[in-house]
Each structure stands twice: as structure tokens, then as C-alpha cells.
Amino acid sequence: MDKVKLLFVCLGNICRSPSAEAVMKAVVEKQGKADRFFIDSAGTEAYHAGEPADRRMQRHAVNRGFTLTSISRKVQPIVDFATFDYIIAMDDQNIRDLRRMAPNEDLARKLSLMTDYCQVHTETSVPDPYYGGAAGFELVLDILEDACEGLLKHIEANGRG
């Protein structure tokens, strides 16, 4: 069986998308399904390319048992749209930017919003915590934990994972 390939995307790839990557890895690991997935993250911009995740985000994630190990990179439209089964944006601007990057309409069908998979939370996007305080980082993790569980259920319901 081919691995399910997931790409989480935010603006700079230092807070939300690396957190989504770490949370999703933990979710599939907990379910004993880590070997069935390839999970990565990227940003629509290269502001922080080559850098690790934001230290504040790392600190909040570690407090919940998640380790953010990814190094920031910019979305590579030709490669990423061809490689990944799901390309999951954190907010409306990210998804608009990704739609513009999509090589064609067929590949653009791989796009969705992270909050589409929430089971409990009602937010319509994962808010950027970069300029906020601790509560913003905690809210991001709350939403991501909910959405990643829902994403796994969605994937399984579609005969994958």
C-alpha cells in the first residue's frame, strides 16, 4: 500500500504548519499507523527557509508532548502538488495562495483547510500566533489536535490510512 502523503502549509512554516506536522505524526504513531504516512510542512513564503520552528511554538508543543523537528521550507508547487495526496492550508489566505500556485485545477483538488477536519472546534481557520501571546499558541495546538484526529478519520473513511 502506498503511503498517504500529507503536506501542511502556513505562511512562514515556523508556527502552525510545523505544529500540524508534529501533531499529525503523533496521532498516527499513537494509532500504530506511522509507517502508512509521509508527513511534511511548508510555507507559502520563504521568510524563514532553513530555520527551525519558532521557539515559543516549540515550547508550547513540548508541554503537550509534541516535538517540532521540521526545518522551514517554501512550497515547491511542481514537486509538492505532484507528490502529496493532501495539501492542507491553515487559513483562507494560505489556500488562496496555494490555489494560485497549483499547476492545474485537477491538482488544486488536493487542497483543503485544516479546520475542515475539526470535530469539536468551530474556528474557520488556524489563527497565526506569531504576534500574540501564550494563549494564541495554546489555541493553535487545541485546534490542531482536534483537526488531526478528524483528518485521520477522514482518510480512513476514504479507504486509506
What does this structure look like?
This protein has 161 residues and is an alpha/beta fold. It has one domain: Response regulator (Rossmann fold). It has helices at residues 16-30, 55-63, 77-83, 92-101, 105-108, 134-157; strands at residues 4-10, 37-43, 86-89, 111-113. A four-stranded parallel β-sheet has the order 2-1-3-4, with helices on both faces. Helix 1 links the parallel strand 1 and strand 2 (37-43). Helix 1 (16-30) packs across helix 6 (134-157) and helix 2 packs across helix 6 (134-157). The longest helix has 24 residues, at 134-157. It is globular and about 40 Å long.
Write the layout of secondary structure elements.
Elements: E1 4-10, H1 16-30, E2 37-43, H2 55-63, H3 77-83, E3 86-89, H4 92-101, H5 105-108, E4 111-113, H6 134-157
Parallel strand pairs: 1-2, 1-3, 3-4
